Amino acid sequence: MANRSVWSDNRFWQRSAAWVTGFASVLLIWLTFDTSAQISMGTAQDLADGVTKRVPSSTVINYKITYEMDTARGHEVPVIGEKELFFGRDDWSEEEAGALLHLGKLGSQAKNCMNCHTLLGNGAYYAPDLTKAWLDPAWGPEGSLQAMTGKNTKEEAMAEFLQHPSQYPTHERMMPNLGITADEAKGLVAFLKHMSSIDTNGFPRNFGKIKGAVHGK
Ligand code: HEC
Known about the structure:
The protein is of the alpha+beta class. It has helices at residues 10-39, 44-49, 94-110, 144-149, 154-163, 182-196, and strands at residues 63-70, 75-83, 118-119, 122-123. The protein has 6 helices and 4 strands, in the order ααββαββααα.
C-alpha cells in the first residue's frame, strides 16, 4: 500500500474527474452568458447614441453602412455612419424595421436562399455568400448591377434583381426567378442590409478583397 503510485489510485482519478467536470461546467455557463451578451441585438437608442453593438438594432436600415479596415483587429468591420434613405425614408421605427426584417427572414426561409447561398456561413456553396452582399460595390452608385437594373438606389436595384434575377445574369451561374413579390423583396433587402451591419470578425475573409468593397481602398 505504501508504495502505490498516485497514478494508479482510484480516488485521485475520481477527484480529478470531479474537478475537471466542475471547471468545464462553470466555463460553459460563463461562455453562454458572454455569448448571449455579445450577440443580443442593440436598440434604436444605441444607434442614435453611437453605441457599437455586434448586432445592431433593426433600425440600422436608416443608416449608411461602410466596410472599413480595423488595423488593431487585423480585419474589416462594418461601420455605421450618417443617416441615409432606405426606400425613401430614414425614420423607420424599431417596430416597422423589425417587421420588415421579419418579413425578409421568413422570405429567406420560404424561398430557401441557403439552398444555394451561405448566410453568415451557413448554407450551400453554389452562389456567393450573402453576409455582406449589401456592401458589394456592384450595387453602389457606380456599380454594374445597379446600372444593369436601371434603378437609382442600392435598395431598389437589389429589390429589382431579387424579383427578376434571370434578367440580370452576371456569372456563368444564374439565379432563377423564385416568384419573389415586391414586398418580399423589400423585406429581403432590409434583411440583407441588417446582416451586413453585423460584426462577423471579418467573415467572409474574401469579401474585403473585392475592389471597392473596403472604404478608401
Ligand atoms: C437556385 C439557387 C439560388 C437560390 C435559391 C437563391 N439564389 Fe441568389 N443567386 C444565385 C446565383 C447563382 C447568383 C449569382 C448570379 C449572378 O451573379 O448572376 C445569385 C446572386 C444573388 C445576389 C447577388 C449577389 C451579390 O453579388 O450581391 C443576391 C443579393 C442574391 N442572390 C440573393 C438571394 C436571396 C435573398 C435568395 C433567397 C430569397 C436567393 N438569392 C436564392 C442562386 C440562387
